[in-house]
């Protein structure tokens, strides 16, 4: 079984070696370590890492520019590492597409714990189409649970919920939902979609009159709009 690959970009070679040592202990991760921005961009394309730890202050191309270049081609998670602790710098880094911002100096054990937590969360979420504090939709079995209890759904209700939850925030028209779930069923029409959505809301929403999961977008249709915990 392959281990996750982490691209570590840091121009301070002492920090580079210490962080690499902590992350590679027990064989948990494979770490590709580089010291400058241009090499980082090349490595990001060549190694297809699962996570990038990216220093902001790099010689030549800085970390912010590296992140912009990565985001043009990939949505790989990026953690910025920087001695800059001002809120404006943190916000700017996150706005560029970083997933976290770690301020120097830091304890290598804490950094390793953050990385472990990131991969644990990703492993849990990969088992589900959706999971928050109330609602779970399993990827393989398509079982739907609410507060830990299996929700009894009819086949078309389940198909509709699964289809929408695969692309959270995507807005679908009634016509699109009908064609995707019912296809060319001559015994149904588009009003069937609205009936099933109303029934689904009764079964999964904390307040069906003010839905959290299946949200109406006026003039357009519906989207799966749950917010992750």
From TrEMBL:
The modification 4-aspartylphosphate is found at residue 55. Residues 125-226 form the OmpR/PhoB-type domain. It is found in: Cytoplasm. Signal peptide: none annotated. Keywords: DNA-binding, Phosphoprotein, Transcription, Transcription regulation, Two-component regulatory system. GO terms for cellular component: cytosol; protein-DNA complex. PROSITE patterns: OMPR_PHOB (PS51755), RESPONSE_REGULATORY (PS50110). One of its GO terms (biological process) is regulation of DNA-templated transcription. This is DNA-binding response regulator. It comes from Paenibacillus ginsengarvi.
